[in-house]
Amino acid sequence: MGKTVYAHQIMHDPEIPDTIVRTSTLPEELGRIEYLLSDKTGTLTQNEMELKKLHLGTMSYGIDSMDEVAHQLATALGESKTNGRRDMSSRVKDVALALGLCHNVTPVVDESDGSITYQASSPDEVAIVRFTESIGLTLSTRDRTSITLRTTAGATLSYEVLEIFPFTSESKRMGIVVRDRQTGEIAFYQKGADVVMARIVAYNDWLEEECGNMAREGLRTLVMARKRLSEETWRDFEEAYRDARVSLGDRNATCARVIADFLEHDLELLGVTGVEDKLQDDVKMTIELLRNAGIKIWMLTGDKIETATCIAISTKLVSRGQYIHQIAKLKSPAQARDELEFLQSKLDCCLVIDGESLQLCIEHFRQDFIELSTQLSAVVACRCSPTQKADVARLIRAHTKKRVCCIGDGGNDVSMIQAADVGVGIVGKEGRQASLAADFSVNQFSYLTKLLVWHGRNSYKRSAKLAQFVIHRGLIISVIQAVFSSVFYFSPIAIYQGWLMVGYATAYTMLPVFSLVLDRDVNEDVALLYPELYKELTKGRSLSYKTFFTWLMISLYQGASHSPVSRSERPADALSFAGGAIMLLSLVLFESEFLNIVSISFSALVVNELAMVAVEITTWHLAMVVSEVLTLALYVVSILFLPEYFDLSFVSSPTFLSKVALIVAISVFPLFVIKYLKSKLAPTAYAKLRDF
Question: How many domains does the chain have?
């Protein structure tokens, strides 16, 4: 029930709207996160792409010179007079056609005003199609077998779609084979990540350098290539590909081999695009706050190492002046060992490592790598596959035994999210796969601040206090029964029976104890202003063996103080079983009649629980006061309906009230004094800031 309340508070927080708690058993885990693994695109960034740069090998166009690109395209399409080199115009046309044809975008026409909107699985695709539209080549219609483009002059270019090779996170590329219905020419267009396309395109001397330059500007690079096919080549491929798709063996591998043999080699490199993805609001502030809270942040992305480094700096994942150590393109275990040995002397740096090197380190030096990397304040892993992301999350969990939180927004992040202790999904433009697979769903990365530092803190602290009170509530009555039985020579007699036991487990103690779910040790502003307070939670001191044995001793002490001993028993026997002044006090106070023994001890037990809740409350809430008063009133009224347990004439006497008050005072007052002295002599960090 307590966790349900925490989930309700999270989902109804106006500062993090539309947050969904899909797993109500985990809210307190938010208060003990030590490692945060984050995707980049759509998680740290807005996933709203805009094409900023186009490079054709000998010419580069920036965002300010796209009018020249439009002019060159119009020249190549015969829509304007040639004022420049014909060669450049044809190259612009080639790359524009590649961008306009090689995608999975579907145009949707609004019948009311004729406007066109684009639908696609990735915002990258939409950004590129919008770019081609801005330079004069608009996608007008698209279905499974054809694509139609419209120029600014109103002319249409119609193409038949012969085959599509969709993008996957493993292949990192997409291809399409089309036939120009006007000329009959067949062409294979392909686009993808530079690390993949570099092996497929024909030799060139500028691709790697230019992709590196764009990545250093924080742009996502996409390489465009083309291969013209003859009718004979296409028929041979079509036949081989058809056989591969019906093969009984490893079908995917067979299909990939056929595509590589016939299509994916010696492609003509057309150009490289640079797409910008702006950071989400408050990402810098959020990352800086989480770092101050002692959370070590890892960014796992599929981007180039230069792009990932640029984003790490711009998001403040790398602190000012911090050394960045890059590990890339490792080919042998010896190289990996040398890098790890160097890293041992740079534990204050930010590590940036590519997927190939990461895999090499994990395969050959798993223990050494994870031991070193988990000591670093920030790690950036680029060119990571979804499988690698999940493997990293599992490795950190297994090695550190600490709580790991993973956050992402796309389907490629699902495996990582599910491998974490706590998974957070962002509802993004790539769909709801991550959101539906996660334990918590949020709208943007900055919501993590409130989710972890405030709601995580409250959920963990409250759950710890609630769990210990439930333990104490059961232990104290067990101790009373044990001492009672031992004093009466271990006779099998239950001191509290029937409705008393039912009432103690429910109506007499439930509301005050449950009201602790509203307690808080600091207010929200202090928790967010001093994220360093979060570090204390990760140590697990609020609920540990130490706190358990502390509450065990409290239960033994209070149980003994409430244990009834009749005057007919020998004092020596009583002292031998319970010992100390508390049991001696019981000898003096309790009446010889069994009925009075039950009424005094049970009343003291109930009032003791109410008093203990009051002592443990840090910040009073109206519901807490109501629960205390209502429970006490309910107990007093219920006495009238339980004459078999309470002698009404005795219960209403001042003697009864004084004895109950004295027992409760002896039981609770020492604990109150200890708590007060501790708060004055050795206050906790949050106690010093409580009244801020």
Answer: 3
